[in-house]
Amino acid sequence: MIPIKEAKSIVEKHLFKVEKEQVLLKNAGDRILAQDVVASFPSPRFDNSAMDGFAVRSVDTIGASNDSPVTLNMVGVSSAGTPSNVSIKEGECIQCMTGAKIPDGADAIIMVEDSSGFSDAETVQIMLETFPGKHIRNRGEEIKEGEILIQKGTPITPSEIGTCATFGYGNLSVFKKPKIAIFGTGDELVEPGTPLGEGQIYNSNLYVFSELANCAGAEITMRNVIKDNKDSLRLFLSEALETCDIVISSGGVSMGKYDYVRDVFMELGVEEHFWKVAQKPGKPLFFGTGKNTLIFGLPGNPVSSYIGFMDWVWPVIHTLTGQPEKESITAILKKPFPREKVKYRFLFGKAWMENGQLVCEPSPKVGSHMLTSSLQTNCILGTAQGDGPLLPGENITVHILPWKSIK
Ligand code: AMP
Ligand code: MG
After folding, report:
1. Is the CB of 184 under 6 A from ligand 1?
2. From ligand 2's centre to the CA of 257, what distance in Å?
3. Out of 67, 72, 318, 368, which could bridge 323 as a Cys pair, Cβ 3.0 to 4.6 Å?
4. What does the pLDDT look like over 124-158, one tens digit per residue?
5. What is the spatial distance between Cα 336 and Cα 364, in angstroms, rounded to a whole number?
6. What SS3 class is residue 92?
């Protein structure tokens, strides 16, 4: 049994280089940027109108009001996409639509509502005095040319997609999704939706793994529940080791008579780096490497599997896809937390703000078979070994579940 810290540094040493690929912008949602996105031009790219109206010289509108309108000569139209190349002179104006280029000579826009309106007449009445810059969106006022808009490592959400489109990126360099194989082992496992026989239970772990792997940014290419026999394991694993970047098992790596997963890994040439880590739940954790594959064998108890994935696999997927890891934070315990004498202890928990401080409490269900301990929680709490429980008022480490928030 090795300490978590040592085990983590062993995993870090075996992480491989992250690969990149080009994808069309429309397919880039939910991917992770592998390039900086830079503004290739300022935004707005040219001075343009914020309103439908008239481009004027503001000096020509001095004194204009409803009672005493100013009459200007209408000398052209500038619409979005079709700028006018007429330059306006004293006493002139140009019809200018939202997004249209401001014609030379104009320094303000009068809204159509403050005029006698658009018409084919040669003149227009202006009912409002204006000033330079009014209703004009200036070149570069939002973004300067060459500015870094989005940094490498950023998850691509609608905001990033929209910004990339705004600046003309037709495709983007993103990190490749690691291919992941997930499998469960156990003669007792039955798929949800089918009847249970005597002594059987439903396979829940692969459903949790599947959600977590997708959410972390991996692509599940193999998934299966395998009976506790070496032949079936060999069949699945030999293909997984050839085709996947990461292989994750749930169950079959403990001390049980039918826990064959580790044996089969070894038979297939996997190099074992550690098996058993000083943590609870999830002690019989296996980590090994194949030719191009990272292999994690997580114990089958549902909480061990879930927390094991979050603590070991999630950060690996994040690192491989260039996503920065969130720092863990500390909170003040409101209820005692059961510390272990020689192992790091994890439990699902709830963290919330109270009088400006982050406080938390562990789930009252502490068994590693109790998956419902994860319901109504928003974090995993963890503490290093020590004598006796951590007491209310003491600090504890909090890992907020990435899809949850602090209330
Ligand atoms: P194992 O690590 O194979 O000894 O399994 C430990 C416990 O986890 C046993 O009670 C198993 O029945 C249970 N278990 C194993 N795999 C799964 C799974 N995929 N879904 C739910 N429970 C499981
Ligand atoms: Mg088993």
Report:
1. yes
2. 9
3. 318
4. 999 999 999 999 999 999 999 999 999 998 999 99
5. 10
6. strand
